[in-house]
Amino acid sequence: MRELTQAESRPAGVERVHDAGPLRITTVMTGDPWRENCYVVMDRASRSAVIVDPGAAEGVILATVEAQGARVSKVLLTHGHHDHVGAVAPVCHALNVPCAVHPADMRLVRQAPLWAFRFAGKLIDTPSPMVELTDDVVRIGGASLNVIRVPGHTPGGIAFASNGFCMTGDTLLLEHIGRTDLPGGHAPTLQQSVDALLSVLSADTILLAGHGREWTAGEALGWWSRVRAAPPVLDEHQTAS
To answer: How confident is the model over 199-210, as a mean pLDDT?
Structure first.
């Protein structure tokens, strides 16, 4: 995975840009209060693209798509919590694309406006249109993302992996895991999902989380072996590192 140099084009509001095989992965940090990471994943040859977890800042996300000349086919969600779906409705409307979410998180996505108002007093639209994501692979032009089931933070949690990177949502963050005390969360299942995820990723895989900085699967595995019995939890509804 190659990170673009400062001399290369980077739209305003973009945190990081990586080239990974045929794909370009652009990180847009969507702002306070949760500083959620959205990813624009584009096949450089065809300019076909998907957007993962547009939590807010739809203007920055859409400007990034336009600057890259990306042709977005769908929005993908790692899970259904409101801080990851706040910009889904305007982005899907602007680009005329659907939002794909695992069937087990459909209810959470529909409830996202209620949770956004409860935790932050924010008004967001219900994401639409929504389609069920049940495939093991998502095609992006001539490239693809592998869909990895990681329930526990939510019932329908998903990670997306390809070409030496993995977008982990709130399942696994830098030296944290996601909370499990909200409806649908289950701590033992989340621990098993982290076990399974780290068992299939190579040590040099770059982990791109739902909040915070990236790290490698090797670093995560060493950390996890030390803290698995009582791992620190990131409460993304209050703070994000």
So the answer is: 98
Look up the CATH architecture of domain 2-234.
4-Layer Sandwich (3.60)
Q: Specify the 3-state DSSP secondary structure of 13.
A: coil
Measured distance CA(97)–CA(82) in Å, rounded = 19
Torsion of CA 19, 178, 28, 97, to 10 degrees: 90
Instruction: Locate all alpha helices (DSSP H) within 5-144, ordered by sequence.
Output: 58-68, 88-95, 106-120
> Where would I find the H helices in 96-186?
106-120
Quickly count: other Cβ atoms within 10 Å of residue 151's Cβ: 21
Burial of 21 (0-12, 13-18, 19+ CB in 10 A): middle
Give tens-digit pLDDT for 28-61. 998 777 789 999 999 999 999 999 999 999 999 9
| Domain locations in the chain as residue ranges | 2-234
Starting at the earlier edge strand, list the strands of the sheet with 99-101: 2-3, 14-20, 23-29, 37-43, 48-52, 71-76, 99-101, 130-132
Tell me, what's the pLDDT at 182? 83
CA distances from 93 to 58, 98, 232 (A): 11, 9, 37
- Are 197 and 205 within 8 A, CB to CB? no
Residue 5, burial from CB neighbour count under 10 angstroms (0-12, 13-18, 19+): exposed
Cis ω before 188 (30° cut-off from 0): no
Q: Rounded to 5 degrees, what angle do the CA atoms 227, 231, 232 make?
A: 125
CA atoms within 13 A on the CB side of 58: 15
Distance between start and end Cα atoms, the chain:
24
